């Protein structure tokens, strides 16, 4: 006799609540169908459900996300970096206190106190017929950030070595909930053949029918829950083994919307608006924001960044501010709308030659006009780089591009050999946007402050308004 087991999953919603009623409707419908047919079914989320880019996530510090997952009927979730490193230690420690589901993450550890009551390394599921499924969760080891928030992420492969042999003895099927990314998932599949299924996320990869590496089925459903995933496992009771496993994804965009979820989101929006209505400043006139021009607000924000971090100099791209700051009462909701990014201040050490190259790169059209998606940036384009603590002299070429003619620090030219502490957005420490910044061996991140916290401080202390 053969039996089918169903796992429905989501990953990397990033608080994209516009589509959440469709997702919830799909998940509820899937569970109802399986229950009606007396088939085993579980709902899982693979992390980055929370993203403070949305006012609801910001106002409730992720707890509204947990409420929405409770309402959808989730059984298991693991955490992503957006849950892990975008809020203070205490906020993450209590994030899942009211969860009706189990939280599985084997490599997350608190450095200050006992582990949260909700945190489990592994979980065992069992079908009515007695099939045992061992589940383990892992999240990406961004310890440069986590340890500043008094958490530690143990190495994923070492963690698996500690747990897989035990799961193999106690479970018929092993599932890994992985917020590590596609490359890591593929390597895990090569090394740990006992893992039957890896449900992934983090790198926003979409595997419409899964991918098999050795004996392991790997799957993931992209980003923002435009798709939700389904895994079907076929167990043969006579052979006492798994004989088939398939993965598919389902498009959420045209699905019916769950009315109860829409009502919940409407109520949460009103509550979030009220929570974020605290006044930061009362302005007599609006403050202009321009992505390709020098503005007073960007200059003052960049100066605040330099002062806040005690850096020698600072540099910040004008595209971090998405809209003008209106006249009248400016609230935390306005600040969040104008600067929604989960971006932290960061200080890197660069010598004068490296700093010069970074500044030159930031002047190019390829940089200023880049439509960046990712690395914490939630805006449209990077925009003009603004500096504090530096005098950057440029000349305008015939094609309207700028050329860096000279750079001065404290009235003297930059010393190519001298080390400077440079404050900037942590965005530039990733990828290849500014290679000199990314490859700096000395990086210090400031958590849990976001750039919008510095913007609120700048408006309150450096802008005449009242």
Any descriptors?
Purple Acid Phosphatase, chain A, domain 2; 5'-nucleotidase,  domain 2; 7-stranded mixed beta sheet; 6-stranded mixed beta sheet; globular; nucleotide-binding; hydrolase; signal
Q: Radius of gyration in whole Å, from Cα?
A: 24 Å
Number of helices: 15
Residue fraction in strands: 25-35%
Class by SSE composition: alpha/beta
Give the termini distance in whole angstroms.
76 Å
Write down the overall geometry: globular
What is the CATH topology classification name of the largest domain? Purple Acid Phosphatase, chain A, domain 2
The strand count comes to 25
CATH arch. level architecture of the largest domain: 4-Layer Sandwich
CATH secondary-structure class of the largest domain: Alpha Beta
Largest beta sheet: strand ordering = 6-4-3-2-1-14-15
> Spans of 5+ residues with little confidence (pLDDT < 50)?
none
Outline the biggest β-sheet.
7 strands, mixed
- Mean pLDDT over the full residue set: 96
Helix content: 25-40%
Instruction: Give the name of the CATH superfamily of the largest domain.
Output: Metallo-dependent phosphatases
Write up this protein.
Residues 7-205 form the Calcineurin-like phosphoesterase domain. Belongs to the 5'-nucleotidase family. Keywords: Hydrolase, Nucleotide-binding, Signal. This is Bifunctional metallophosphatase/5'-nucleotidase. Residues 289-427 form the 5'-Nucleotidase C-terminal domain. This protein is an alpha/beta fold and 466 residues long. The protein has 2 domains: 2-271, Purple Acid Phosphatase, chain A, domain 2; 278-462, Alpha-Beta Complex (5'-nucleotidase,  domain 2), CATH 3.90.780.10. 30% of the residues lie in helices and 30% in strands. The protein is built from 15 helices and 25 strands. The protein has a 7-stranded mixed sheet, covered by helices on one side. A hairpin with a 2-residue loop joins strand 22 (402-409) and strand 23 (412-413). Helix 1 packs antiparallel against helix 9 and helix 10 crosses helix 15. The protein is globular and about 80 Å long. The termini are far apart. The mean pLDDT is 96.
């Amino acid at each position: 006799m053969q039996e089918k087991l169903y796992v429905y999953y989501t990953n990397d919603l990033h608080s994209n609540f516009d589509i959440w009623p469709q997702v919830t409707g799909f998940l509820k419908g899937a569970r109802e169908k399986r229950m009606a047919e007396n088939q085993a079914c579980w709902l899982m989320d693979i992390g980055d459900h929370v993203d403070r880019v949305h006012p609801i996530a910001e106002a409730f510090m992720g707890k509204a996300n947990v409420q929405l997952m409770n309402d959808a009927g989730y059984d298991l979730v693991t955490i992503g970096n957006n849950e892990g490193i975008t809020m203070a230690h205490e906020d993450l420690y209590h994030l899942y206190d009211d969860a009706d589901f189990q939280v599985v993450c084997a490599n997350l550890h608190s450095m200050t106190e006992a582990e949260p009551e909700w945190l489990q390394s592994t979980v065992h599921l069992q079908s009515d017929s007695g099939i045992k499924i061992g589940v383990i969760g892992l999240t990406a080891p961004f310890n440069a950030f986590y340890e500043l928030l008094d958490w530690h992420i143990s190495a994923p492969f070492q963690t698996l070595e500690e747990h897989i042999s035990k799961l193999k003895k106690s479970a018929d099927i092993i599932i890994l909930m992985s917020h590590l990314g596609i490359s890591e998932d593929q390597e895990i599949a090569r090394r740990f053949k006992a893992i039957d299924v890896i449900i992934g996320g983090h790198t926003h990869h979409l595997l419409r029918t899964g991918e098999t590496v050795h004996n392991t089925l790997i799957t993931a459903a992209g980003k923002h829950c435009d798709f939700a995933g389904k895994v079907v496992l076929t167990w043969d009771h006579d052979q006492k083994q798994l004989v088939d496993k398939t993965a598919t994804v389902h498009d959420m965009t045209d699905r019916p919307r769950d009315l109860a979820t829409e009502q919940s989101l409407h109520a949460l929006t009103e509550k979030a608006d009220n929570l974020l209505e605290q006044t930061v400043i009362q302005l007599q006139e609006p403050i202009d924001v321009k992505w390709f021009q020098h503005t007073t607000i960007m200059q003052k924000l960049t100066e605040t960044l330099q002062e806040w971090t005690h850096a020698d100099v600072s540099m910040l791209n004008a595209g971090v501010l998405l809209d003008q700051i209106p006249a009248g009462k400016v609230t935390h909701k306005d600040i969040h709308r104008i600067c929604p990014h989960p971006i932290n201040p960061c200080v890197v050490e660069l010598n004068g030659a490296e700093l010069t190259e970074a500044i030159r790169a930031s002047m190019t059209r390829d940089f200023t006009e880049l439509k960046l998606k990712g690395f914490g940036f939630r805006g449209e384009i990077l925009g003009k780089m603004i500096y504090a603590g530096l005098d950057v002299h440029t000349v305008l070429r015939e094609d309207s591009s700028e050329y860096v003619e000279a750079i001065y620090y404290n009235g003297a030219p930059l010393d190519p050999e001298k080390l400077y502490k440079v404050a900037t957005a942590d965005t530039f420490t990733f990828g290849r946007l500014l290679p000199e910044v990314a490859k700096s061996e000395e990086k210090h991140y400031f958590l849990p402050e976001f750039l919008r916290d510095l913007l609120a401080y700048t408006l309150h202390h450096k802008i005449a308004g009242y």
